[in-house]
Amino acid sequence: QKEVEQNSGPLSVPEGAIASLNCTYSDRVSQSFFWYRQYSGKSPELIMSIYSNGDKEDGRFTAQLNKASQYVSLLIRDSQPSDSATYLCAVSRTGGFKTIFGAGTRLFVKA
Amino acid sequence: DADVTQTPRNRITKTGKRIMLECSQTKGHDRMYWYRQDPGLGLRLIYYSFDVKDINKGEISDGYSVSRQAQAKFSLSLESAIPNQTALYFCATSASMASGRAINTGELFFGEGSRLTVL
Lengths: 111, 119
Known about the structure:
By secondary structure, chain A is mainly β. Chain A has strands spanning 4-6, 11-14, 19-25, 32-38, 45-50, 54-58, 61-66, 71-76, 85-93, 97-101, 105-110. The interface between A and B is medium-sized, with 25 and 24 residues.
């Protein structure tokens, strides 16, 4: 079992729709959870971090965390073609010790 | 200019050659990391350093070594490159302190990447 699992996709959604990206993790002591966006040929860029159960909203992005289910998700509302990228879920214990990444989900937003 | 700079950006080399990838940062972060990225495998941690005197192995350190020359500089060496080290390498930084307070958010800031091909 991988430590951080994501559906590799590709996930295809029409412009203006909600894109839902999911991630599960195996380390129950994980405390910090992140979503990074990576455009093709570019470096990962942090878009959301979440540390406690529940929802965290930032513009069109909402991160959701459920530690009991060991599940993290990212919702992108009003998806735009510019959101087309690979989204990496990342998990670490307190203090950013050894952040572990999922393999990423490719998202395509069709105009 | 990028806050986290990697050199070289692209390198093609032959099996058995020694290669060094360099990383420098202007973010003032104390923690630095080297990751490699392979298709379908995501980012895997090679080495990390929490300060100049602290070096730690990650999950795939075999065949690699690192040097933390200063707080702002962290280099990765392949002593004798082999073809399965062909990958995209990323340096990253994070901060454990901000304004005198411990933050330890774990948020990573990546360099632009170094694409290495070993023939």
